Amino acid sequence: MIQISELTRRFGPFTAVNKVSFNVKLGEVLGFLGPNGAGKSTTMKMITGFLAPTSGQVTVMGQNVAKNPMNAQKQMGYLPEGAPSYGDMTVLNFLRFIGKVRGFSGEALDQRINKVVGQVALSEVLNQRIETLSKGFKRRVGIAQAIIHDPQVLILDEPTDGLDPNQKHQVRELIRNLSKDKIVIISTHILEEVSAVCSRALIISSGNIVFDGTPAELAAKSKYHNAVTVKFTHPYEVKQKLESLVNVYGIECDDESGLITVFPETGKSVLKQVNELIHAQDWEVEEFHVEKGRLDDVFRQVTVGEIA
Ligand SMILES: Nc1ncnc2c1ncn2[C@@H]1O[C@H](COP(=O)(O)OP(=O)(O)OP(=O)(O)O)[C@@H](O)[C@H]1O
């Protein structure tokens, strides 16, 4: 369990993190979201003990991070923002170095290194200097050093930042595989990542928590939640008929894509009515789907107060 209570960090007169409180349980993968400068990295640095809070407390697996930083850090793996330091070391030497710092030696060290090299797929670059690696491999080296001691808590600051779509997919797979019976906190700007890997989403804006819930609950806040989007082959005179259906709150037409979205009144569904109308009118349809909700709209709504 991670317990965060009234965590605050000021830089001079500026408050970067403002009385943030939340708990994270074993088995949870928490997506930590927020616009640039919202306070994500600052919060993660305070959780991991790399930055002292101005006030407030963090307890990780029963260890108070300020009072017992060494004990707390034993429980945690941390991937900071950006590339690993020690760029002139080879991957293998770097992992050996980190493994020793984490208390491994001899055969146990070799076993741990073999294990993480397999998990993160690093074998082809083991003898390459870190500074000569591609961005994706540097990120994987960062993840490898974070998991070398098989910690119960993983704090990953933008783990897929700058990766290509294949590498993003691999890193998300890895996080999913690692996350059983652990606590994982991932900061990200990528909203699709939240649906892909997280069991819970927490949004921070200007140092304050503005949303805490499941990805499905986040999507349900979107005005698109349960809307029906259709692409008609001949989209003439459909709008008026759709608008007159029971439970329909409004219609949105996207001229560029040709998609027409039918919004239900709050808490209602329009799926059946739209479907029946299409069949009754014998309209030809190229695309038809019920929207789960658009996360980018909700993100804007909760972080800058825009109505989606
Ligand atoms: N050492 C520091 N001195 C002064 N201000 C700082 C310092 N570190 C962070 N800040 C400020 O605190 C705020 C929060 O920064 P933080 O890096 O936590 O944001 P973030 O949510 O991680 O942003 P990003 O998504 O861009 O990485 C920013 O306005 C930043 O400029």
UniProtKB/TrEMBL annotation:
Keyword Transport: yes
Keywords: ATP-binding, Nucleotide-binding, Transport
Top-level lineage group: Bacteria
Domain ABC transporter: 2-231
An example Gene Ontology molecular-function term: ATP binding
CDD domains: ABC_DR_subfamily_A
Pfam families per record: ABC_tran
Stored PANTHER family: ABC TRANSPORTER, ATP-BINDING PROTEIN (PTHR43335)
Family: Belongs to the ABC transporter superfamily.
Name this polypeptide is given: ABC transporter ATP-binding protein
Annotated source species: Alkalimarinus alittae
